[in-house]
Amino acid sequence: MSNSMINSFKAQFIYFLILLSCTTLISSTANAKNSAILIYIQDDVYLDYKNFVGERDVLTIKNFSGKTIRRDVVDMIIAQQALQLGGFPYDFSYAPGKVNFRNTKMLQNGDLLISFDSYWKRDAEALADKLYISAPVIRNGEYVAGIYTSPNNQKVLQIKKLTDFTKLTAISTPKWRTDWQTLQDLSLKELVKENSWLSMVRMVNLQWVDFMLMPFNSTADQSFTLEKIHLIPVPNMAIVLKDSRHFVISKAHPQGEAAFIAINKGLKILREYGTITKAYTEAGFFVDPVKYKILNQ
Length: 297
Description:
This protein is of the alpha/beta class. The protein folds into 2 domains: 3-139 and 244-291, 3-Layer(aba) Sandwich (D-Maltodextrin-Binding Protein, domain 2); 144-242, 3-Layer(aba) Sandwich (D-Maltodextrin-Binding Protein, domain 2). It has helices at residues 3-33, 43-53, 71-85, 102-109, 121-125, 154-157, 177-184, 197-205, 256-272, 275-282; strands at residues 37-42, 92-97, 119-120, 131-138, 144-149, 169-172, 190-193, 212-215, 224-226, 229-233, 237-240, 245-250, 293-294. The strands form 4 sheets. Strands 5, 8, 9, 10, 11 and 13 form a 6-stranded mixed β-sheet that branches. A 3-stranded antiparallel β-sheet has the order 3-12-4. Helix 3 crosses helix 9. The longest helix is centred in the first third of the chain and has 31 residues, at 3-33. The termini are far apart.
């Protein structure tokens, strides 16, 4: 066994011991206080999260491969592990539903501690007077998105170059500043505004709109399926979204400052041990740049 392999094994083993000891200590403290904090989660994300985690303790998960893993689910797991490693002594309970942008108002008012779905830096900075912004969980340049469309939309599936977008329509929301600006820069035939993510995927599935940008999925063919919705990415083509993503925490929540300090400590540990990159890579979100043509570089 090489020295590099031995060192990697040692680092992972030390990280596991740190996480295990924190799990025992903080879980017992939180249970004693009976202090679970309620977090609101988009219903489809929560379903995938529960299917992926199952009966496991989320704080000890090290392998991020699976059928229902995706960027949003990795965000949820990384946030909880970072908070725990940083010494935040609380458990969480969840309320699923169509929460989407309602969460932002709840964060501003202090009714929600943290968004386990990371925010683009541009979106977070617009609310910096109300929210703490963590260190980046996804760094600038790492977010490479697929061009997702209906399997029957040959016009999109035949994209080869940047100028092909002038014949196509896309859908997003200006509330996602980075997504919206990226699509505007593609010189589309039309950019449709829709604030509901579920409505976006339905409209693309019905071919009312040609495509939307989505993180690559962990399925074998990287397709996305939700009930009767089935979308696939343009093969070997991608778009880079030039911004970083961060966890945002309410400044008005009683535990806001403590959570902010803890998550940054934990993210630093996870970054040093390579856990963050490993997690998003195993989930299929980070893709091999050699295999993809980035159309907007």
